[in-house]
Specification:
The chain has one domain (4-97): HesB-like domain (Hypothetical Protein Aq_1857, Chain: A, Sandwich), CATH 2.60.300.12. It has helices at 7-20, 66-72, and strands at residues 4-5, 25-33, 37-45, 53-57, 60-64, 76-82, 85-91, 97-98, 105-106. The chain is globular and about 35 Å long. Strand 2 and strand 3 (37-45) form a beta hairpin. It has 107 residues and is an alpha/beta fold. The strands form three sheets. The chain has a four-stranded mixed sheet. Strands 1-6-7 form a three-stranded mixed sheet. The protein contains two helices and nine strands, in the order βαββββαββββ.
Length: 107
């Protein structure tokens, strides 16, 4: 089981955490929503739940709850910029379908 970050995503998380002044890493999960079933949830991790799985890459820790990990195991998180738009992108090998707008996915 693993979650990985590209160097671009890791640098973006580090800069967010530095500007914020606190936090132990990135909290990644999923929630039920949208037309395809699930959406990614990404937040700062200020504390760690005992059951959270911890992954570290490029000096950034990523915390994932066990229920979310079942759906996103093997995911690579990237950070991309296109003109004025910038966003985290998820390359999840478990995805079987996505909605037309790309906001939700099914497994």
């Amino acid at each position: 089981m693993a979650i990985s970050l590209t160097p671009s995503a890791a640098e973006r998380v580090k800069s967010f955490l530095a500007a914020r002044g606190h936090g132990v890493g990135l909290k990644l999960g999923v929630r039920k929503t949208g037309c395809s079933g699930f959406a990614y949830v990404i937040n700062y991790a200020d504390e760690v739940a005992p059951q959270d799985m911890v992954f570290e890459e490029h000096g950034v820790r990523v915390y994932v709850d066990p229920d979310s990990l079942k759906l996103i195991d093997g995911t690579t998180v990237d950070f991309v910029k296109h003109g004025l738009n910038e966003a985290f992108r998820f390359q999840n090998p478990n995805v079987r379908g996505e909605c037309g707008c790309g906001e939700s996915f099914s497994v």
